[in-house]
């Protein structure tokens, strides 16, 4: 709770502020330790500079923290962590190559401009001055009282430093970007010039109807060879996936409904004659019989399940609702209490102990922590004015810096239930010791305000699950399918799946560290990816996977193994086939036009059964009758008046152009304005392209797959 309170009061301090489990790494870190010794090894290199396991873990930890705070999934961030780490190394290298330095004074002076700080008004006084000394003091306090939080601040600081270096690097580079008078004059000329043209267009889509074009693998490969930078790829796998969900049957649904009805009206063998309807201990009954735990909190009307929202206001305490269905659950609800929502102003002192979630470098035992908390609680309860004297014992430096205050909270505030329960059941001035997963809190309620009506509801919940019979049927179906496709081609695999209306997907470029599989998204995804990247894996291999907790089955088929380098043509077919097909048609059309040796547009129009058209085109806005065609606009200004152009391979078809005239339509704006606008645009574009250029031209070595393959062996 204290740590969550610190998030609200100190959002700039991303680390050490919420308790998180150990990172769910792709492989067990202990396995790496055994394989490589105390130093697990190097994950990669950027222009010779090593990326260590510690570097990678820190970056991944940062992303997972941010995702958790934003309510986003914390899995599947490994590849993003790697890319950010590579970019950070490149920025630092270029920064130092230019002779730039980030000093300690510069760090603290520039801190107020970092997005993490600039958007937090609490970090600025009423005059707009940044409270840098206060932040320095809090960091120093962490260093002395909470080593874990301090170490996490150092990780956060590293990311901030990279952002500072990036801003300074881009600022220095883009400062030298200018636009010449001659360049501005040329742009203004292109902006103001118009060409009136007649043209014939052979549309690709219409041409293909009568002249089907098949794109071969070699055609795709030729295109990729001409654009190697665009198709530079990390190692990937082309997979076929067939998903067999163990969805509950109608019989399973009915059985669950009958089960909850019995618990509601009769009870079961464990409860004897006690049912949910007549129980005197709702929380205990739910603990013994419900698939979800009892929540003692009070909720607003809008936070309650939809089927009971409009009923609780007029219902009396003890009223029951249901059974009703919520997603994959059957629910019976009982109204236990109703009262106005209180906003509560409270403060606390957190006494942690060794081994708990907020323990940090604490050495005291749990027993010693309770003894200390009880003694502080007794003193504060007798004399609340002495509260601040004990803040030095608090393991929550964020609230301690605010006199222990966690601010105003409501039952909806994301604090631990025990803390919220104390606030909800006690009045202004109350003081007590409350135990949570973070330690012992000495809580003092400073003030309370009444608000909207809230409700305390007990929910008896039964999940609608697939029965053993249903799971066995799914298993039989999945094993029969894998037997059918064993040793077969990928086309057979796909066709058999589609013929039986199975859930089939074909992610063509699966990265080793992307975490989730497109079209699947199960807890088994990482295991399937690891299986596909095993060095012993071969094209055509298949296997069956069972999703934990659901009984769902996934059949995986390796359709392609792509090592790091240029993309496999078939893996990117969907992406580039339309482009390549248009190019093949463009060549056919152009060859036919050239072979006909036409002397006017009417002859070409007749040759392809199309109409001659007219348009007015401009170089800076190259639209031709609604289609963006920059090459056609270029041809219009490049061909001599009343002369036919060569066939032009456009975006939507092949054009032949005849220019009738050129005119000038002077637009508002002077030369100085245009020069400044070009410089600004060039500066922005260069800043965006610099990092990509650094990455495209860097020597980047990625050893992660090799490391994990060794571990799996």
From TrEMBL:
Cellular component terms, GO, for this chain's entry?
plasma membrane
Please state every residue range assigned to the domain named PpiC.
341-447, 569-661
Which InterPro entries has this protein been placed in? PPIase_dom_sf (IPR046357), PPIase_PpiC (IPR000297), PpiD_chaperone (IPR052029), Trigger_fact/SurA_dom_sf (IPR027304)
Q: How does it sit in the membrane?
A: Single-pass type II membrane protein
Compartments where found = Cell inner membrane
Q: Which GO terms describe its molecular function?
A: peptidyl-prolyl cis-trans isomerase activity
Residues annotated as transmembrane = 12-28
Q: Which Pfam families match?
A: Rotamase_3 (PF13616), SurA_N_2 (PF13623)
Q: Which UniProt keywords apply?
A: Cell inner membrane, Cell membrane, Chaperone, Isomerase, Membrane, Rotamase, Transmembrane, Transmembrane helix
UniProt superkingdom: Bacteria
In terms of PANTHER family, this protein maps to: PEPTIDYL-PROLYL CIS-TRANS ISOMERASE D, PERIPLASMIC CHAPERONE PPID
Q: Give the protein family.
A: Belongs to the PpiD chaperone family.
Protein name (record): Periplasmic chaperone PpiD
Q: Which organism is it from?
A: Chryseobacterium salivictor
Designated gene of the protein:
surA
């Amino acid at each position: 709770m204290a740590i969550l309170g610190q998030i609200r009061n100190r959002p700039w301090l991303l680390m050490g502020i919420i308790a998180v489990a150990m990172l769910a790494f792709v492989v067990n870190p202990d396995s790496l330790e055994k394989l490589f010794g105390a130093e697990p090894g190097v994950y990669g290199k950027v222009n010779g500079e090593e990326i260590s396991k510690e570097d990678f873990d820190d970056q991944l930890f940062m992303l997972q923290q941010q995702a958790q705070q934003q309510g986003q999934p914390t899995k599947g961030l490994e590849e993003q962590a790697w890319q950010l780490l590579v970019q950070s190394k490149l920025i630092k290298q270029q920064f130092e190559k230019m002779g730039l330095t980030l000093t300690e004074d510069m760090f603290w002076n520039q801190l107020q401009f970092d997005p993490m700080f600039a958007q937090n008004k609490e970090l600025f006084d009423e005059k707009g001055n940044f409270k840098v000394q206060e932040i320095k003091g809090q960091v120093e306090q962490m260093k002395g009282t909470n080593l874990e939080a301090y170490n996490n601040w150092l990780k956060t600081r590293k990311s901030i430093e990279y952002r500072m270096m990036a801003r300074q690097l881009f600022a220095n580079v883009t400062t030298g970007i200018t636009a010449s008078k001659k360049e501005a004059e040329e742009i203004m000329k292109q902006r103001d010039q118009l060409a009136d043209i007649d043209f014939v267009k052979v549309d690709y889509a219409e041409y293909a109807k009568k002249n089907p074009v098949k794109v071969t693998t070699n055609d795709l490969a030729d295109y990729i060879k001409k654009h190697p930078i665009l198709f530079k790829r990390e190692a990937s796998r082309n997979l076929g996936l067939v998903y067999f969900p163990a969805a509950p049957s109608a019989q399973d649904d009915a059985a669950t409904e009958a089960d909850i009805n019995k618990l509601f009206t009769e009870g079961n063998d464990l409860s004897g004659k006690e049912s949910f309807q007549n129980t005197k201990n709702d929380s205990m009954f739910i603990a013994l019989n419900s698939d979800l735990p009892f929540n003692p909190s009070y909720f607003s009307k809008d936070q309650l399940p939809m089927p009971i929202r409009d009923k609780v206001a007029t219902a009396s305490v003890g009223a029951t609702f249901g059974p009703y269905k919520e997603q994959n659950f059957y629910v019976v609800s009982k109204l236990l209490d109703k009262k106005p929502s209180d906003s509560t102003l409270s403060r606390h002192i957190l006494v942690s102990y060794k081994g708990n979630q907020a323990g940090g470098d604490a050495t005291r035992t749990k027993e010693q922590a309770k003894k200390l908390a009880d003694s502080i609680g007794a003193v504060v309860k007798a004399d609340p004015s002495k509260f601040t004297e004990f803040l030095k014992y608090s393991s929550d430096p964020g609230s301690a810096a605010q006199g222990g205050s966690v601010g105003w909270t409501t039952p909806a505030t994301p604090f631990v239930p025990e803390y919220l329960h104390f606030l909800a059941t006690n009045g202004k001035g109350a003081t007590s010791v409350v135990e949570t997963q973070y330690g012992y809190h000495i809580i003092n309620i400073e003030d309370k305000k009444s608000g909207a009506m809230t409700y305390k509801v007990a929910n008896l919940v039964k999940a609608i699950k697939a029965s053993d019979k249903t799971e066995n049927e799914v298993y039989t179906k999945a094993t029969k399918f894998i037997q059918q496709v064993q040793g077969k081609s990928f086309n057979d695999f796909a066709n058999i799946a589609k013929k039986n209306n199975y859930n089939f997907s074909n992610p063509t470029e699966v990265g080793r560290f992307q975490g989730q599989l497109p079209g699947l998204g199960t807890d088994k995804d990482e295991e399937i990816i690891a299986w596909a990247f095993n060095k012993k894996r071969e094209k055509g291999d298949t296997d069956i996977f069972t999703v934990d907790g659901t009984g769902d089955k996934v059949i995986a088929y390796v359709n392609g193994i792509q090592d790091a380098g240029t993309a496999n043509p078939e893996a990117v077919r969907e992406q580039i086939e339309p482009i390549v097909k248009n190019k093949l048609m463009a060549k056919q059309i152009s060859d036919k036009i050239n072979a006909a040796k036409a002397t006017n547009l009417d002859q070409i129009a007749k040759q392809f059964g199309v109409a001659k058209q007219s348009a007015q085109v401009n170089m800076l806005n190259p639209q031709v009758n609604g289609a963006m065609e920059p090459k056609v606009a270029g041809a219009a200004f490049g061909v001599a008046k009343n002369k036919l152009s060569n066939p032009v391979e456009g975006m939507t078809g092949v054009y032949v152009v005849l220019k009738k005239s050129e005119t000038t339509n002077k637009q508002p704006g002077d030369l100085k304005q245009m020069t400044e606008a070009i410089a600004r645009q060039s500066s922005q574009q260069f800043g965006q392209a610099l990092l990509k250029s650094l990455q495209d031209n860097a020597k980047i070595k990625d050893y992660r797959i090799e490391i994990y393959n060794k571990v799996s062996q």
